[in-house]
UniProtKB/TrEMBL annotation:
Name the record gives this protein: GIY-YIG nuclease family protein
Biological process annotations from GO: nucleotide-excision repair
Organism: Dissulfurirhabdus thermomarina
Lineage of origin: Bacteria, Deltaproteobacteria, Dissulfurirhabdaceae, Dissulfurirhabdus
Record-annotated UVR domain positions: 205-240
UniProt GO MF annotations: nuclease activity
Length: 260
C-alpha cells in the first residue's frame, strides 16, 4: 500500500498494532526509526494536523516522503527490531543513539573460562565482544531476557561466580547452566557461548543446523536427557527467530506495510 504522507486518510490505514516505523526520504534513505506499542497512535503524534513536533522532528518530517511499518507480535519484539534496524541504518535523526556514548550494549566477556553476557553502557578496548548499541535499556534487557533460556549463559559477577556454593535461582528457572558449581563442563559451556555469538551475529541458520546435529548425536548415543535439553534450546531459538526476524537475519519473514 503506497500513500503520500501528506495525502488523506494516512492514519486510517495504519494498524493499531505493535511494531517499528521507518521514516524515509525521497531517495529511500532512512531518516528515523522508532517503535510503538500501537503504531496508529504513535504516528498520529507526528502526522495529525494539531501535532507540534520538536524542531529536529519537524526537520525530519519535512524531508520524509514515506513511512515503512514493520509489524511485530509484541512490544518486546518491537524493541528488538528497533535496535536491529537502527544498528543497520544509523539514521540521521536518531540523534540520541548517534551522539550519546552511554547507550547500552551486550558484552560477552572473553577473558574467563566461563564468559558472561551482561549489559554495559560503554564499549571498551578490553578484548570482549560487544553487540549493539541498543536504543534503550529496555531493548537490551529484553534481548537478554529472551536469550537466557536459549543459551543459558551466566550474567553474575566474577566475585559471585567464585563464591557460589550451590546453583542460584537463574539455574533453577532454566536461564543459566550453573558453571559456578560444575553443572556444565567447560567444553559444553564453550559451545553455548559459540551458539549465543552466532545468534547475536544474525547467523541463525548455521546455529540451528549445529544444534540439530548435536541433538541427533545425543539421541543416537542414547543420552536422551541431553537430547531433550537440546530440543528445548532449539525450540527457544526458533521462537526467537520467528518473533524477531530482523535480529535473526530472516528478513523475508517481516510483516511489512509500506506507506509512501
Amino acid at each position: 500500500m503506497i500513500l503520500d504522507l501528506e495525502g488523506p486518510d494516512v492514519l486510517a490505514r495504519v494498524p493499531a498494532r505493535p511494531g517499528v516505523y521507518l521514516f524515509r526520504a525521497a531517495d529511500g534513505i532512512v531518516l528515523y526509526v522508532g517503535k510503538a506499542k500501537a503504531l496508529r497512535q504513535r504516528l498520529a503524534a507526528y502526522l495529525r494536523p494539531s501535532a507540534e513536533p520538536a524542531p529536529k522532528t519537524a526537520l525530519m518530517l519535512a524531508r520524509a516522503r514515506r513511512v515503512e511499518l514493520v509489524l511485530t507480535g509484541s512490544e518486546k519484539e518491537a524493541l528488538l527490531l528497533e535496535a536491529a534496524l537502527i544498528k543497520e541504518h544509523r539514521p540521521r535523526y536518531n540523534v540520541r543513539l548517534r551522539d550519546d556514548k552511554a547507550y547500552p550494549f551486550l558484552r560477552l566477556s572473553t577473558g574467563h573460562p566461563f564468559p558472561r553476557l551482561t549489559v554495559v553502557r560503554r564499549r571498551r578496548p578490553d578484548g570482549a565482544l560487544y553487540f549493539g548499541p541498543y536504543p534503550s535499556a529496555g531493548a537490551v534487557r529484553a534481548t537478554l531476557r529472551l536469550l537466557a533460556p536459549a543459551f543459558r549463559l551466566r550474567s553474575c559477577s566474577d566475585h559471585a561466580f567464585r563464591h557460589r556454593r550451590r546453583p542460584c535461582l537463574q539455574y533453577q528457572i532454566g536461564r543459566c547452566s550453573a558453571p559456578c558449581v560444575g553443572r556444565v563442563s567447560r567444553e559444553a559451556y564453550a559451545a553455548q557461548v559459540r551458539e549465543a555469538r552466532l545468534f547475536l551475529e544474525g547467523r541463525t541458520a548455521p546455529l540451528l543446523r549445529q544444534l540439530r546435529r548435536r541433538m541427533a548425536a545425543e539421541a543416537e548415543a542414547l543420552r536422551f536427557e541431553a537430547a531433550a535439553e537440546l530440543r528445548d534450546r532449539i525450540r527457544a531459538v526458533e521462537s526467537l527467530v520467528e518473533g524477531q526476524a530482523v535480529v535473526a537475519g530472516q528478513g523475508a519473514r517481516w510483516d511489512v506495510v509500506g506507506l509512501a
